[in-house]
Structures are given as C-alpha cells and as structure tokens.
Design brief:
Layout lengths: L1 E8 L3 H8 L2 H7 L3 E6 L4 E10 L2 E15 L3 E9 L5 E14 L2 E13 L7 H23 L2
Antiparallel strand pairs: 1-7, 2-3, 3-4, 4-5, 5-6, 6-7
Helix pairs in contact: 2-3
Length: 147
C-alpha cells in the first residue's frame, strides 16, 4: 500500500528536523509507543501496541535512516514484528521544504507491506487505520515541536 501527503508546521525547518531525529519526541508522538531508543546514528529500536479493529497488535521493530541530507530529506525503513499476527515493513521518503522563515512543509511518500495474519484484513481497513495513526502522530508532533 502506498501513502503520501504533506503536513505544514509553523516552525523553522531545522526545528522539524531536530524533532524527527529526537527519540524522546518521537516516543511521545507515536500512538501506543512503549519505547523508542537510538542504537546508533542511523538505527533506532521501538516497541508499540496498535489496534486494528478489536485486535491489539504488539509490534517490536527497528527504524533505519538512510540517504540523509540534513535538514532537507531522508529515507526511513521501518520493520515491525507482531509475533503470530504477522509483520510489516515500510519505506518512507521524507522531504522538508521551507515555505517561510518560520514555516516548513513535510512531504512524505511511503510504501508499506504487510504479511502474516495481518494481511487478512482488507486494504481499506488497514488504510483507514494507517491514516488515523498518521493524523494522530502529526497532531502530537506539531504540538511537541511548537514548545
């Protein structure tokens, strides 16, 4: 499945970039996140519990950053394991565009793949859940970096 979109933040691009690279900021913004820690300059480990319908989905995984062009763009590869429920991967291309002295637009283009029992859910259900999680993440992120 493919997701793409843009978000506007009323802070300079450097502030958005710093927030995207701060595990403590990301932990508070990711719905259901239990931990999010940096293991190296480009590798982070995470654990979160999500929901698809009535099914709780505990995921542990990694986030690898590549093609880093600070503070303008990067590629993020996410791999999550949900035990017997399945697994998910995502590759996201992120670009930060200055739209004013204190405004930044974040453009994202993400391709996701889901396997195991998770793949039994319809793509419309998964798409709806992903959009909901993205909306909550960006709302929390905007509030966190505005401080």
């Amino acid at each position: 499945m493919r997701f793409e979109g843009s978000e506007i933040f009323n802070v300079p691009r450097e502030v958005v970039w710093q927030g995207l690279n701060d595990p403590s900021v990301l932990k508070q913004c990711i719905p259901g996140c239990e931990y999010f820690v940096r293991e190296s300059a480009t590798l982070l480990k995470a654990k979160a519990v999500g929901k698809i319908g009535f099914v709780k989905l505990p995921l542990t995984g990694s986030v690898m950053q590549s093609q880093i062009n600070a503070p303008e763009s990067c590629t993020i590869f996410v791999k999550g394991e949900g035990g017997i429920l399945g697994h998910a991967t995502a590759e996201a291309h992120i670009k930060l565009v200055e739209t004013g002295p204190s405004e930044c637009r974040l453009d994202y283009d993400m391709e996701t793949k889901i396997g195991g029992r998770l793949a039994n859910f319809s793509s419309s259900v998964i798409s709806s859940v992903m959009q909901s999680y993205a909306s909550r993440f960006f709302a929390r992120f905007a509030a966190a970096i505005a401080k």
